[in-house]
Amino acid sequence: MIPDPQGTARGMAPLTGQEPFFIVWNQGSGRNDAELVRSTIQKVLDEAGRTYELIAVDDGAKLPDIARRAVEAARARGGVVVACGGDGTLNAVARAVLGSGVPFGILPQGTFNYFGRAYGIPQDTEIATRGLIGAHLEPVQVGLLNGQAFLVNASLGLYPQLLEDREAYKQRYGRSRLVALWSAIVTLLRGGHRRLALHLDSGEVQGVIRTPTLVVGNNALQLRQIGIPQAEELERGKLMAMTAKPVGSLALYGLLLRGLLSRLGEAENVISFPFESMTVRLGKRRRRGIKVAMDGEICWMQAPLEFRVSPEPLMMLVPAEEHRVEVA
């Protein structure tokens, strides 16, 4: 998206630099020490003379309700809602903010931080908090799956299973990219991956495909890092569908390796295409719901699945140049 230096996109008034921050902080997410995160946020904002309310959440199930209350408070006081936590936390708070007319900020704490890194926002709490000060508003595209927002990606089939197993490994061995990689290898080694019969209809692309997984991406940084060549389509108001032809476990290892080497788009077994909206219907044998993942959070949904770009973006606080970090 093209930055709006005046912060007036979609009719929203420019920031004054005095808006109070309502920070919804999931203490249980991320790898950082909770007390250090708290003291760092307080130190930076106190030194800047900014008004803020740090709302700590110790139960992820309470996040949606607390996020809605934060939005109400921000709307009443002309403030900004800030999500502090991993991908799931950012997603939960973004859903509450979307369509509210309230600006959205983030203090990312997740393992990969694709959403934050796309806008130069690091996991380092001090740098990210300083970035809130003097930030400008920028419209950020959001994807929808059956009306539910996602920031990075949404998926079904093998990919949600990889995420579910990864979370179990993180609980046991800690949060790191190495643990995430090892978990993926073990999941593929276990085998037994079901092939889904999916009927896709995106207008330009129609037909039935048998595949172990379908991933819909909304983050150009992630797409570029795994080697999908059409990442720039996201900047044209589209989402990116990625799926694989039916292959064995050995070929899935090859696809994983290509993704790590940023060459997934070169694989003959991978199909990718951009779209604005797409309906996915399941095979006749699947009468119950299907497991899906949105920004790493697992849930069940009933088909058909409707993917589309949200007609309204998030108005996000993007740091000034001196507080942005280089994407690695």
Automatic annotation (TrEMBL):
UniProt entry tagged with the keyword Membrane: no
Claim: Cell inner membrane is one of the keywords in the record: no
Classification via InterPro entries: ATP-NAD_kinase_N, Diacylglycerol_kinase_cat_dom, Lipid_Phosphate_FormReg, NAD/diacylglycerol_kinase_sf
Keywords tagged on the record: Kinase, Transferase
Span of domain DAGKc: 16-149
Pfam families documented for this protein: DAGK_cat
A GO term, aspect molecular function: kinase activity
Signal peptide: none
EC numbers, comma separated: 2.7.1.-
SMART domains linked: DAGKc
Annotated PANTHER family: SPHINGOSINE KINASE (PTHR12358), SPHINGOSINE KINASE RELATED PROTEIN (PTHR12358:SF54)
Name of the protein: Putative lipid kinase BmrU
